[in-house]
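Anyone else keep sequences and structure tokens together like this?

Example one:
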Amino acid sequence: MNQEEDEAMTYRAVVELWAAERESLQYVLPYTARKAAQKALLFSPWMAEAEIDQIEPSQVSAALMYLGSKGGRQKKGLSTATLRAAHLAGSQACVWAVERGFASKNPFARVTRPRANYRQSQFLTQGQATKLARAASRSFSKNLSSGDVTRASFALAVCIAVATGLRRGEIFALSWDDFNDTTMRLSVSKAIKGDGSLGRPKSVASIRNIAIGEKLCKLLAKMRAWQEENFPEKDWSQSAFIMCNGEGERASLNAFEHWWRSWADKGGWKGLRFHELRHTHATLLISNGTDVKTVQMRLGHSSAEVTMSCYAHALPMADGSAATLLDSTLFSR
């Protein structure tokens, strides 16, 4: 930094320096630092060139009110989750400025952070999940047979998600050196970020090696055999991506999102988000008696407490299954 410690700085300059420090010193992943800065700069029309100490809480409130009613590209207002994230990022940047001596106060501190109205996550029942997995498996085989490897990859991604609980970015970052058909395991060590770049997974705990079943293993082997035959120039022992397009390159996440919405709606899963396949995987494991520690490891959570906080709803189902099993054992003739 070239600024003197006591030199006043504009809001924009503070946000940019805050983000640069977080990224360069690796406090967070580069994508995370940039994304937070983008959220903080949503306040730019109201305070970008103002010094931090000149910004009043009323300006922050006015900005939030406008962004909530007329923000966004279509001027229909930003979601409460986005408003909350913007307030958090702006506040964190200003706290950073105070700690560095660039400001004496945080104008966000006296403005209540918006409460996010998140939609409650859905999860599929065992029967629904089975129906979806079989439909995805059929779609995979049909598209691969016709030579449409892009749509085959998309269908395979669905199979992997419901069978393993991997996140979307983790699935599309998988390469063939992550798949071991002898031990029937997948290694997760990278992820596709929101900006399309290839980077590290969400956390250290997200780096993991998980078991997969025989049927999923066969689908993967079928995909590899097709790619080896049709893209012979690729290095199949190392960097080739499992989910690929017609040129053998990594499949597009944007294209996948369009395909998923259409495929899921037509299949009878209207409104189901792809990430909810992860919730389904965890819920089914717990409700069928899998211990929480194993579920934590498969999902890549940092602790069993995190897993429990996300999937406590599955415990009554597991308890019911346990009671039925013991009842049939104790009182059977």
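And example two:
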Amino acid sequence: MRRRPASKGTTTRIEYLSRGHGHGHAATDVRVAAALRTLGAEVRLASYGSGLDHCTRRGVDCADLGIDDLHDQDPTAALRVLAYLRGRRGTDLVVAHEIFAAPSLCRALGLPCVLLTHWFFAEIGAPDRDALLATPDRLVLLDLAAAHDVPAALADRVEFTGPVAEPYPGDRPAARRQLGLDPAEYVVVVTTGAVTTHNRDRLGALPARVRAALPVRHARLLVLSGPTAVDDPAPYHRAADVVVANATFGALSELVAAGVPTVAVTGGPNPVDRLHAERFAALGLVTTVDADARTAALADAIRTARPGPAPVDWCTPAALARRLVAPPA
């Protein structure tokens, strides 16, 4: 990879570009950026839309790229990224999390670039766009190698890290003690992620549907609706007998890494979410159910959900940070 000498002694200056279009990218990137700083790097985080909102609500310093979530693949979005990078001086490395225009822009500006993603365009029916993944100095896939068919043109370039997750450090009894929950009761957690005008019809009714499908008469139902429902959902997830989750990659990664029986609710418009839910299910890591499934099918999924096999190819934010500043030989 092209390298620039560090700008201040041994300090590496990193521009970290985090995709909006949901909160999952920013949730990962905030933690990775913090880990990079503990390694001595100077990190400047930038995002937009819901990614920027995630950072702002948590008091994380983050520049606004001025891009709309729904139009973040448009040419105007690329121009805004270009303007931002041109305005940052002394950059040693650009880390771009699914900012697919960034690698070609960095090449034009003479900046080293690492692109983070967790899917290939060919997997969602757009193989021609995989050319975008051939441009960065490094292509890092934040997922299990077993969950993907790597396009031949990228086979010698891609680095798999495993999904990035930092599970709750204790067991279920410890999580329940932290939350003041009865150690003997049956607990189901519903986590929807951000409920917006674009997914409200599908996710808004999910808690009520899960309540109607609870397989235990006096079960406790805890609903985490939206990314700001609680500051840290990890103890709630770990305390649960089962978590019913909107099938986003970030949420499923955290749940599987924690060994939590998970029902992934599919049926949304995002083909990437469907891809990961199907691949995780094929590996025996989650149980899937369609958002429009009948109550009996949802109840059966909750009743039969089991934790998947112990993950072996998982990655913490700290491990990813070390990999970014000191790539494997």
